[in-house]
Design a protein that fits this description.
Blueprint (H helix, E strand, L loop, with lengths): L1 E4 L5 H13 L4 E4 L2 H9 L5 E5 L3 H8 L7 E12 L13 H10 L4 E3 L3 H14 L6 E3 L4 H10 L4 E4 H7 L5 E3 L7 E8 L6 H11 L2 H9 L16
Parallel strand pairs: 1-2, 1-3, 5-6
Antiparallel strand pairs: 3-9, 4-7, 4-8, 4-9
Helix pairs in contact: 4-5
């Protein structure tokens, strides 16, 4: 069986290992961008795919009958990234609006990510604070460039925890706040018409089981063992 996922950090192998060993199933894991996941579906090169829920290409493929109805499986978090001493004291907070409020009330700037979706989330959080006079930097930069800006300005920003963790960046402190607005849900789809469709359906059932959910929430990255890495969508 071939499983294609848009990102994983060896996460999926860890979650599936008990199930695969018990049922003597072999899986080929492939990782790629959303467009590569869609291509694998088109070419019948995958039996099961996982990508972000809001990817329109996969939603269209489901509506056109290429995929069985998807199920949300888990969510990966965005993280506030800021100075290592956390001068705004947001670590441990449970409310992202309160976190942004404390950043804005501190002597440190909040840099708006150049990514459109992240910028929308940041601006909405800013609006909810009710504060209009503070240091907000509207940036057109993304990825590594936004990390450099945050470090050089001794400022905070927002980005995905997983891509940040992959960078091995020691200059900024990642702070994950478990709020739905900062979680990006991921959906699993069984590809229709493949020889492994039945096994793929059984795999989907396992991933939605209580046993798998426990493994999902317990998974940690070696570099950040104190941070929950994956969440179960509500």
């Amino acid at each position: 069986m071939t499983v294609v996922i848009c990102q994983q950090d060896n996460f999926l192998q860890t979650i599936l290992e008990p199930y695969l060993n018990k049922n003597n199933i072999k899986i080929e894991y492939r990782q790629g961008h959303h467009s590569e996941v869609a291509r694998a579906v088109n070419n019948k090169e995958a039996d099961f795919v996982i990508t972000h829920t809001k990817v329109k290409k996969l939603q269209k493929m489901e509506s056109k009958g290429f995929l069985n109805k998807g199920q949300e499986l888990f969510a990966n978090p965005m993280a506030f990234l800021g100075p290592k001493d956390d001068p705004a004291n947001i670590s441990g907070l449970q409310n992202p609006v309160q976190a942004v409020k404390q950043i804005m009330e501190s002597d440190h700037c909040f840099i708006i990510n150049g990514n459109k979706r992240l910028a929308e989330i940041q601006n909405e959080l800013i609006n909810q604070t009710g504060i209009t006079d503070s240091c907000i930097i509207q940036s057109d930069k993304q990825n590594d460039a936004i990390l450099t800006d945050a470090f050089e300005n001794n400022a905070y920003t927002l980005w995905g925890f997983h891509p940040f963790a992959k960078r091995g960046n020691d200059n900024l402190l990642p702070i994950v706040i478990p709020d739905e607005v900062l979680l990006s849900n991921m959906t699993g789809w069984v590809v229709k018409g493949t020889r492994q469709e039945q096994k793929a359906n059984e795999l989907l059932n396992y991933l939605t089981s209580d046993k798998a959910k426990k493994l999902i929430t317990e998974f940690r990255l070696n570099r950040y063992k104190h941070i929950q890495t994956w969440w179960i969508p509500h």
